[in-house]
Amino acid sequence: MEISDKLKLIPDLPGVYLMKDGDGQVIYVGKAISLRNRARSYFQSPTNLPPKTQALVAQIRDIDYITTDSEVEALILEAALIKRYLPKYNVRIRDDKQYPYVRIDLNGPFARPTIVRQVKKDGARYFGPYTRPSAVYEALKLARRLFPFRSCRDVTGKVRPCLNFHIQRCLAPCVGKVSQEDYRRLIDRLVLFLEGRTEVLVPDLEREMNAAAENLEFEKAARWRDQIQAISQAVERQKVFSNDLADQDVVGYFRSGDEATVQVFFFRDGRLEGRESLVISGFSDLSDAEFIGQFLEQYYAEAEFLPRQILLPESPEGEQTISRWLSQRRGHRVYLLVPRRGEKKRLVEMVTQNARLAQLEREASHVRQEGSAEAALDELAQALDLPEPPRRIECYDISNIQGTEAVGSMVVFEDGVPARDQYRRFKIRSVIGPNDFAMMQELLYRRFRRGLEERARITERGGLGREESSFERFPDLLIIDGGKGQLSAGREVLRELGLEHLATAGLAKREEHLFIEGHSDPIILPRDSDGLYLVQRIRDEAHRFAISYHRQLRSKRATRTKLDEIAGIGPKRRTALLRRFGSVKKLREATVEEIAAVEGMNRAIAEQVYEFLRGGSQREPGGSDV
To answer: Is the pTM of this model over 0.85?
Structure first.
């Protein structure tokens, strides 16, 4: 159907529209009170549109739409679709840094804090972000001294407490030294401390102290007293930036060309708890009001916590709609404020200044890195006789010890920069024994066969979702970590798949010479060249990614016990047996009746365990020895 015919069918209702190019890819997502009027506006006077919008219109080959009941629903749906499709012409937000958070999963018993760099919607509580990595470790170090939570990964299978219990840094839930109720009370207080809600925490601890004193438990009361003093001192060391004790996010930004830095400072109870720095691109034709409006929609669609106030340097487009949406998400009113004077204006100016400095620093760094990366890519193109600089480079490596736990890695660099979201790792399946050539062939075959299959589905269906298209993009240069042998093995696979046209090089491990098919002599890049430095970075990243996966599998294998070799013994029964007997050695000394009495066991499985550990043959249920 022609675009003109499609426009006639679009209803005059609120909703979201999706612009698609000739390949069926979504290139723009927008919302509108009237889908019909907004969609038609793109084609009525295209020459009067901004240059970027003209470029968008020139590529539109189809329009889809989804109607909603209100503009707020359209806003929510637009944010979700932008996140899913990452359209080329929408504003794109990416993290400037991945700041650490403290995560506490309160859903299970005996929770413990962990440090993460990504916030997920998994029901856990997240605290942060902490702008310095050392700050999160300092916070947890202080928290452990005040609230002796467990630090071990697992609370099962232990028979005696560790040193932390004896130095009063853990309550030892692993061996039943504390009940779930008392431990949960401890974690709840830790949460209050991380939230900065000492006005609730301290009176609660004072009640515990007074109750202990009344019961003549003076040593216990002294511990509560010391804990209260330590918490009070920790709070006093935090500088108060705002006299307004309402929870506030303060937003500032600085635009430069088609890129901007936005910083969000988090104030909780008047204290600066952290900040986040984000990089925005793809907005050059937007006004400041449109820019800040789209930022708020995308940023707070993912936020775990919504404050009562958001201080802004500019009123956003669709301010009332955004405020209603945020209020619905929070369950209470969220105020969007543009302060004109006083302390709140000073806070916005401070955050804006930080954003300006961060953007200028990024630009200076980008100029240096871009020049170096461009020089490296040009040098590789010339050395390997490529028609143009290799914008996408993939590197492959194998890691194993004498053929065991063999894994392969695929790392991707785009324009000389790691594209970590496109890294992939493979567990080698078909190769038995130490045969690195065969392992590399399996790795390449699986990677490119998957890519060819995805390309075929794209041709048939006119497009794939992001979850379905992990391998359809092929590299401009493929680097295999290894010399001539690895290169020959890899080229054999590419010829089998009809991909012999892909530029491929082998990188010798020792001399760091490059080999290409049809040339007996290596290509030697100067030791101080940008090209060699880039190749080394890519190779080292592939090796790091492979070896980390290999170690992970080895560690997992090392934690297996002899019980894992017995049919019918899974993780639950294994844990129950070890908890009851303490070790495999003591389990070996037990009788069939004692083993069968363990929770989750029965007589038949108990007999199997008994025979196996006493040196008998392992039998499948109902089977026989051969």
So the answer is: no
